[in-house]
Structures are given as structure tokens and as C-alpha cells.
Design a protein that fits this description.
The complex is a heterotrimer of chains A (289), B (203) and C (367). Chain A has two domains: 170 residues, Rossmann fold (3-Layer(aba) Sandwich), CATH 3.40.50; 48 residues, no CATH class. In chain A, strand 11 and strand 12 form a beta hairpin. Helix content of chain A is 26%, strand content 17%. With 289 residues, chain A is of the alpha/beta class. Chain B has a single domain, classed as 3-Layer(aba) Sandwich (Rossmann fold), CATH 3.40.50. Chain B has a seven-stranded mixed beta sheet. In chain B, a hairpin with a 7-residue loop joins strand 6 and strand 7. Chain C has 367 residues and is α+β, with helices and mostly antiparallel strands. Chain C has a four-stranded antiparallel beta sheet with strand order 1-2-3-4. The longest helix of chain C is centred in the C-terminal third of the chain and has 30 residues. Chain C is globular and about 100 Å long. Classes of the chains: A alpha/beta (289), B alpha/beta (203), C alpha+beta (367). Chains in contact: A-B, A-C. The interface between A and C is large, with 68 and 52 residues.
Chain lengths: 289, 203, 367
């Protein structure tokens, strides 16, 4: 095999995208199977990365397998481009690919995310890569991998329904506000990752491809574009999302997910958009305060 | 013993070349029915298979992925070409195949259910089948629905064995088990993952 | 108004400078050389190589220096580097019977062919400070034996095995190549190849605690140290293009075979069973712990049940890897304010609804 060419701007000490080509092929083959079996967790030979397990190594391996010179990468954590780990991952890819990065949702071809889906609707020419801490939606109900694998195989999802219903009986609500389980293509229950349930409806029939990487747990899964993603609920207790009484303090949006920010020592608080690019764009367009 | 082995050309840029091919394959399998261009990367090899198919194989295969080929092709310089350019072994056992190539109208599409179909606990352990056909525009229209398809899309492949549709339908019925198909016609390919439902479009 | 939206990039840059300063310590003190670490911190090097899954004493020394002696952080550096290394092939299995032995003891026999070889160990030292080390020490040279040790020393379990008293270890049908857990994810239930690989790079402290729990009664079988040996073995490799094996160097290994009593079952007569431990460098505590846990996890095959933590395969194997464990525990330092916001909103809502219900009930009672 010929030596990889040096790509301008990429750190010459490492292969393009950090992973060696054989590892990329392994991840790629797993991803091709993942899109063919929507919502099913495909085991893959997850490698140790220079960022810690639990800090996005699954998403990083997927991005490394995807990324090419024509891509433009955006990385967000909690919706923000400037949170520490988002910065760290973006810098990592800038270093090992020499490629373009952006903070603008509209400019990105690959968006790697932790815990949010951008507010701006994603397009068919974009790929959303989720970092996944726990890919198994049933793990908290059943700690054994042998058991949960069988439950998925035979669609034995009664345990999940029972748990959700117990919540309703006890609290009047399903007491899950993030990582709220979804049914993908009416076959596999999957974890949407710890996004707030506010974001769940965006997954349904999304024009963009959604890929999920769990590095420590060594699983990838996918939701192809235009795939039915249904948040589990009951007829008498339909799925609902969070809402706020106030708009974003900065841009005035009433449609976005808001973070609560404590602004003084007496606990006074304001609410601002968690999606920093969305908020900034609205302010530039003259919205808000 | 045989004619001298001609290595032809593999990927000139194995890093970025295979990246662009992978993205095309990912696009095809995540958007069934939408034709995707196979990037032309100057791959040259035995003419037993079209260069686009060779390009796909050298980009995604390696020594971890046995490739199933028909007996005649296995005995041809193609097997050695594959081993030379991507270290992929060829296999006569369809159940061992990570990838398989069914080429042309004479290809035994009845093979589809002979390949690895995965099991219900590990459905991903199945063969990806590269199926060549003449074109994607002049055959009888087949309507596709399912994940990746924006409501409904039609393909018109021609030059496929007569039983192709019935076998691809049977393949879908086994979901989550089943093979995944890439239909390649010239420089275009269309993905038909097992999740895709196929119906002969009524006129 | 304070809203910390921007500024992460500059702050991260500053942490890199600060950690470099911390690492160096007082500049008036001579800087530590990696060679010194490699030669004088051998046991720490061994641990980093084991948990880092890579035999390279120089890199382990650099890892320890770079991580200020944090063995988990150092092992992590080794693992991340390992990812970038191309794979040329697999070595042949090492032959520990042909080990150039520096230490070999058995607790099950008073004497045995080849003898007890105490070698370098802290076992018989008094744990009293040697204050002379503070100023640098000129130690007296050790007294060497007149006769060299036998080139090949039978492993104690092999001696016992001849009588049929000890469980025989048979390769699975066809003797397939072992799964490589660094390339394929482990599947459960795990076969022994997977188990031994996962244990061998598992955290020493975690495995030690589990081994201890077995001994105290949370697993209930008493292990004997059948043999512990440490020394150098040759690594042989057959390059495809050569077609014959070549010696690519020596590595230091510690091997431990634990022997456990097994009462037998309806079909099987009573015999001894074994657990196997293996580690890079001089790592007896690790090898012993591994052997005890390996034996505990054999319980599934021996019909012993899995009532105790050390017998529960997924529990042990999923949680013994300190790179994974520390990454995931420490990821809690990452921001989680989006998820937390969801919880906040829910808790407020439930509280409010409860309060309203109580109010209504009180109002109904009053009317």
C-alpha cells in the first residue's frame, strides 16, 4: 500500500483523521450495517483515542471514519460550540485533518454533538454524529448484556413499558427528561443519547443521516434520513416536551431549549438558548433584546 | 503456468480515495433508491468486473473481509488482484462472505438467501452484496419505501435476473436479518438495504 | 450580567501551560530523566505497560513522567498511542517453561525440580524506611549462586497434572486463533481467551479487591499459589515474507498458576482446578489477583453459580478496565447543564402539581 499523502494543514505525525486505514474500514463497515438496521446497536472494535473514554470517543471514531477534505466540521456540547470538550474535539480534528471547522450549523457538513440537536433544522447534505455514553436503552432496567441483547432480538420490550407506566403512576409523568427512549422504524428501541426530550421530535423523519457512536461500550447505531422515530408513550399520557414561561433573555426565542443561568449570589436567574449559534444568529438578525 | 499477473492500479490515494468511496456507499445505503455516483479514481484491474465494482471492493475490503466470487471469477486473475491491492481473501463459501459480487443478468440471484444473513441476536453479521445491472432507468419500475426513503421512490433497473425482485422482497421480509444490496450500473449505484420494501409499481 | 457563553478556547490553552508547570515542580530541582524512571521505577513501569496494553519500557517511562506518576493517566497515554501503531502480525505463543527464571516459588510443594528461587522480592523485607536512599545509596552487590539455574523448568501444575489430579486445560475444538479484544469487542458470555485478555489489562487494584473478596468468603474457594514465576522469555515471530520464525527480543513476564480445590460433581471426580494469571514485567500482585479471578469466573463451567461479585462475568470484565472506568467517571466533570435543566423543570413541575393537589384537598375539606 502506498504511503498516505501529506494533507496540507494536517499533523504529519499521524494518519489523516488519526485512525489507521484498517481501523477506519472496520468502523465504516459497521456504519454501513448500522444504516441497514436502523436503531440496532452494531458492535465495533472501538479503539482507545487520545481523548478519554466517556468524552466522545465513539463520536470521534465515527467522525474520523467519515471526514474528508470537502467536509466542514462543527462540534457542540450542550448545544454550545465553546464548551471545553467541544473546543477540544474541534481542535483535535483540525490538527489531524487540517480541515475546515465552523461554529455555524448551516455551514457544517458533519456536526458532532453531545446532548443536543441544533435548533436549526438539518438538511439532507448534513450528517449528525452523536456521542453516546450508554447506547443500551434497557441497561438501567437490565444490567446484563446477554439479557438485553435477547430482549432486542425478540422485541421483548414489556419491561420498558412497565417502567414508564410506573413513573406515571407515581409522579403523574414519565420521570425521564433526557435520553428519553425512542422506537426506531417500529422495530428497535434505541437511546437518543442524553439529549433533552425536547429534541426527540427533531429525530423523527429528519432529512439528515443520524449516526451514534459509543466508544467505551463499543457500539455504533444509525437512524437513516426520513425514518420514523417515535418517543415511547401511552394513549392516556402522550409524549410532551419541555416548555418555558419566558423567552430567551438574549434573543427572545420562544422556540428553543433554554438553559437556566444563575446571575448573582442571591440565586437570581435568567434563561438563555442552549444552542449558541442559533441564539447568536437571531441576535445578528436583530431579534431579541 | 498462467499469463503473467498484471497488477493494474489500485487506489492512488488510499486515504482520501477510500474516504470518498465510503461516503458514496454510506449515502447509497442510507438513501435507498437515490442513485449515487461512484467516484472515478482510476482503478484498473481484470475486466471480469467493471472498474466501479473494483473501486468499491478495494476501498472497503481487507484481510478481515472474505469476498465471495463466482467460481469462474475466483479462478481468474481477479482473486489475485484483490489480494494484491487490498489483501482481501476470496471465498467459495457464501456464509463466510463479508462482501459478494453478483455480476450481470446471468448471476444466480437465487444466491441471495445463501449468503450470511446474520442471526436475530447479531443481524449485522451478514453479507453485503454488490449486484451489477445494465442501467437504472430503463427497466420495469420498482417502488421503494422504508427508512431512508422520503415517502416513496422508484428505480427502474434493467439487466437483472428475472427472480431478483422476488428474492429482494423475501430478503426484506426477514428483517432484521438479511443481506444488504448495492446495485451498480456503470458509474451509478443504488442502495437496497434489507430495511427497504420493494414493490412492482402498478401502471 | 454574567453569561459564560464564550471563552472556552483561551481557558483550555491556559490549562495546558499550567499542567506543564505543575509537572516540572520546583525548577531548582534537577529534571527527572525518563531513563531514570525506566531503570529505577520498574514496578511502576510494569503496571503502566500492563494496563496500557503495550510492552515498551521507554514509552512507559515517558508516560509516567508526562502524567506526573499517575499510573492510570500513564496507561491511558500508552493505549491512545497503541491505536496508531500498524499491526505487522501476531507473535507465537511465548513458552514460559523456557523462561530465564529470576524468581520462581511454589506454595504447594516444599521442594520441587528446579528448586524454589526467591529472586528479587520485597516479601522478606521489613517495611522499614531505608533512610540511606534519601541521599543516594551504594548497595552491596548481591551474592550470586555458583550454579546457573536449569534452562527449562517444568511448571508446577504440569507436574501435578501428570497424576490427573488437576483439571486439564484443553484448547477449544480446532484450536482457533484467540479473539483479539483490542480489535473486536468482547461478546458475552465470554470465552476464556476474551476473559484472560480483559483481566490482563484490568486494573490491579480492582482485581486485587475482587481476589480478596473471594478469599474472605465472597466466592468461597481457597486458592493455593501453585507457582509464581518471573523472568525473561523470547518473543518469536514468523514474518509472512520469511516463512520461518525469528526471535524479536526478550520481555519480562510474571506468570501465576493458582490451584483450587474442587469437590467434584455427579460426573466429575474431585480434582484441583486452576486459575491463570499473566502480566508484563515483575507484577506478582497483579498476576495472582488475575489468577484468582480467572478461577472464580470458571464457576459457570463448573456449575458453581454466580452469587458473588467475582463470579459475575459481565460485572468483572466490564468494570475492570481502568481506562474506561476513569474516563466515564471523570466525564461527569463535563457540562451536563442541558440534562440537568430537564430534571430541574420536571422536579419543579411535580412539586407544583403536588402542592396544588394538597391545596385542592384542603379546600374541599374546609368547604
Amino acid at each position: 500500500m502506498t504511503e498516505a499523502q501529506t494533507i496540507s494543514g494536517a499533523d504529519p505525525h499521524y494518519n489523516y483523521g488519526y485512525l489507521d486505514e484498517q481501523t477506519k474500514r472496520m468502523v465504516r463497515r459497521a456504519l454501513l450495517k448500522a444504516v441497514a438496521i436502523p436503531g440496532y446497536q452494531v458492535p465495533f472494535g472501538s479503539r482507545e483515542m487520545p481523548l478519554a473514554r466517556g468524552w466522545g470517543t465513539g463520536g470521534i471514531q465515527i467522525t474520523a471514519a467519515l471526514i474528508g477534505p470537502s467536509d466542514c466540521l462543527k462540534v457542540i456540547d450542550q448545544g454550545a460550540d465553546d464548551t471545553t470538550n467541544a473546543v477540544s474535539i474541534r481542535n483535535f480534528f483540525a490538527r489531524v485533518t487540517g480541515g475546515r471547522t465552523t461554529q455555524k450549523t448551516a455551514e457544517a457538513t458533519i456536526i458532532q454533538t453531545r446532548h443536543r440537536i441544533p435548533e436549526k433544522p438539518l438538511r439532507a447534505d448534513q450528517i449528525l454524529v452523536y456521542q453516546v455514553p450508554q447506547p443500551e436503552p434497557l441497561r438501567k432496567l437490565e444490567p446484563s448484556e446477554v439479557e438485553t441483547r435477547n430482549m432486542h432480538a425478540w422485541e421483548e420490550y414489556g419491561l420498558m413499558q412497565v417502567r414508564l407506566y410506573e413513573d406515571i403512576a407515581r409522579f403523574g409523568h414519565v420521570a425521564t427528561t433526557y435520553a428519553y427512549p425512542v422506537m426506531v422504524n417500529e422495530r428497535y428501541i434505541a437511546s437518543p443519547t442524553p439529549i433533552p426530550k425536547f429534541d426527540n421530535p427533531k429525530m423523527d423523519m429528519m432529512p439528515a443521516l443520524q449516526l451514534f457512536g459509543a466508544g467505551r461500550e463499543k457500539r455504533v447505531y444509525a437512524i437513516p434520513p426520513f425514518t420514523r422515530v417515535r418517543s415511547l408513550d401511552f394513549e392516556d399520557h402522550p409524549f410532551t416536551v419541555q416548555s418555558w414561561d419566558k423567552p430567551c433573555e438574549l434573543c427572545g426565542s420562544r422556540l428553543s431549549y433554554l438553559d437556566e443561568v444563575i446571575v448573582d449570589d442571591h440565586g437570581a436567574r435568567i434563561f438563555v438558548c442552549s444552542d449558541t449559534d442559533y441564539c447568536e444568529e437571531r441576535r445578528q438578525d436583530g431579534e431579541g433584546a | 503456468m498462467n499469463a503473467p499477473f498484471l497488477p493494474g492500479r489500485g487506489l492512488q490515494d488510499p486515504v482520501l480515495g477510500s474516504q470518498s468511496i465510503f461516503r458514496a456507499m454510506l449515502e447509497a445505503l442510507s438513501r435507498p433508491g437515490i442513485p449515487v455516483q461512484v467516484p472515478a479514481l482510476g482503478v484498473e484491474g481484470p475486466d471480469a468486473l467493471p472498474p466501479e465494482v473494483l473501486t468499491l471492493l478495494v476501498s472497503i475490503c481487507d484481510h478481515d473481509t472474505p469476498v465471495w466470487l463466482e467460481q469462474a471469477m475466483r479462478a481468474s486473475p481477479l482473486a489475485r488482484w484483490l489480494a494484491f491491492h487490498c489483501s482481501a481473501p476470496t471465498t467459495a463459501d457464501p456464509l463466510q462472505a463479508s462482501f459478494a459480487v453478483l455480476h450481470g443478468p446471468s448471476a444466480p440471484s437465487a444466491m441471495l438467501d445463501q449468503f450470511a444473513l446474520g442471526d436475530v441476536c447479531y443481524p449485522e453479521r451478514s453479507t453485503t452484496v454488490i449486484f451489477t445491472c445494465d442501467d437504472l432507468t430503463s427497466g420495469a419500475p420498482i417502488a421503494l419505501t422504508g427508512p431512508g426513503v422520503d415517502s416513496r421512490v422508484a428505480i427502474r433497473p434493467s439487466g437483472l435476473p428475472g427472480d431478483f425482485l422476488a428474492l429482494a422482497q423475501a430478503n426484506h421480509e426477514m428483517f432484521p436479518r438479511g443481506v444488504d444490496i448495492l446495485l451498480v450500473a456503470g458509474a451509478e449505484m443504488v442502495g437496497l438495504p434489507r430495511s427497504t420494501k420493494l414493490e412492482l409499481e402498478a401502471h | 450580567m454574567y453569561v459564560a457563553v464564550k471563552g472556552g478556547e483561551a481557558a483550555i490553552g491556559a490549562t495546558h501551560g499550567l499542567i506543564a508547570q505543575e509537572r516540572r515542580g520546583d525548577a531548582a530541582t534537577p529534571e527527572l530523566q525518563t531513563r531514570q524512571i525506566r531503570e529505577q521505577m520498574k514496578l511502576a513501569i510494569a503496571r503502566v505497560m500492563n494496563e496500557g496494553s503495550l510492552y515498551d519500557e521507554d514509552l512507559a517511562a515517558l508516560a509516567l513522567k508526562q502524567s506526573q506518576g499517575d499510573s492510570v493517566e500513564a496507561a491511558f497515554l500508552m493505549r491512545a498511542y497503541r491505536t496508531t501503531l500498524p499491526r505487522f502480525g501476531s507473535s507465537l505463543p511465548v513458552d514460559t517453561a523456557a523462561m530465564a527464571i529470576r524468581r520462581r516459588i511454589s506454595a504447594t510443594f516444599k521442594d520441587l525440580p528446579g528448586g524454589q528461587v526467591l529472586g528479587p522480592t520485597y516479601d522478606y523485607t521489613h517495611r522499614l524506611f531505608d533512610f540511606a536512599l534519601e541521599e543516594g545509596s551504594a548497595h552491596a552487590p548481591p551474592q550470586m549462586a555458583q550454579e546457573p539455574l536449569a534452562a527449562t523448568m517444568p511448571r508446577v501444575p504440569d507436574i501435578l497434572g501428570d497424576e490427573g489430579l488437576l483439571e486439564t486445560e484443553v484448547a477449544p475444538a480446532g484450536d482457533p486463533a484467540p479473539v483479539d479484544i483490542t480489535r473486536d469487542p468482547a461478546e458475552f458470555p465470554a470465552d476464556r481467551d476474551v476473559r484472560l485478555q480483559m483481566l490482563s489489562r484490568g486494573d490491579e487494584g480492582f482485581l486485587l479487591g475482587l481476589a480478596y473478596s473471594v478469599q474472605r468468603g465472597f466466592g468461597g474457594n481457597h486458592p493455593f499459589a501453585g507457582e509464581i514465576r518471573m523472568g525473561e522469555v523470547s518473543v518469536l515471530y514468523t514474518p509472512e515474507e520469511l516463512g520461518f520464525e525469528i526471535d524479536i527480543g526478550d520481555i519480562t513476564l510474571t506468570e501465576c498458576q493458582m490451584i483450587n480445590q474442587f469437590t467434584g460433581s455427579q460426573e466429575a471426580p474431585p480434582q484441583f482446578t486452576r486459575g491463570y494469571g499473566f502480566a508484563f514485567g515483575h507484577s506478582e500482585r497483579k498476576a495472582m489477583s488475575m489468577a484468582i479471578v480467572d478461577r472464580a469466573l470458571k464457576g459457570r463451567d463448573l456449575g458453581e453459580g454466580a452469587n458473588f461479585p467475582a463470579q459475575q462475568e459481565e460485572f468483572v470484565l466490564y468494570h475492570c478496565d481502568m481506562i474506561e472506568a476513569s474516563g466515564f467517571v471523570e466525564h461527569l466533570k463535563l457540562p451536563h447543564y442541558v440534562d440537568f435543566q430537564g430534571e430541574l423543570e420536571l422536579v419543579r413541575k411535580i412539586r407544583q402539581e403536588q402542592a396544588e393537589r394538597k391545596q385542592r384537598a384542603a379546600a374541599e375539606q374546609a368547604s
